Amino acid sequence: MEQFKAWWESISPREQQLAVASAVVIGIAVLYWGIWTPLSNQLSEAQKQLTRAETRLAWTQEKATLLLKSGAGKATKRRGNLTQILNSSARQNQITFSRIVNKKDKIEVWINEVEFDAFLAWLTKLSNQHGVAVLNADLAKTDRTGYVKVNRLLLGY
Prior knowledge:
22% strand
């Protein structure tokens, strides 16, 4: 600190003013580009992510409402056992199971990747034509837009 004081007193008043002005400009630049700009960019990106999430939520709620309404109050017929029904309907709808586990009167299936609209249409068909209900579902998004990964889908009568 003593060296700085000695240096400061050794320079002319004009150089002192220039040093102070430079320090102020550098301080403002550090605050702007080091703090303000990154925070502003993060806020903007968070707002974009929120908008995308709200849009996805509205779309999912709309599809879920359609699915629930399409199967409400319709008579259903049971033809064959649950495994046969699932396998034949999945083949007809180009849905491939990555794993299937039979649990008494319930079946648990996994699907690596399926188009969400086709998946909903398949579930609606199962409900309307065969009386198969979704008892539990665990879905995850994929890298492809409009596709989901079915981590676990429990189906039964």
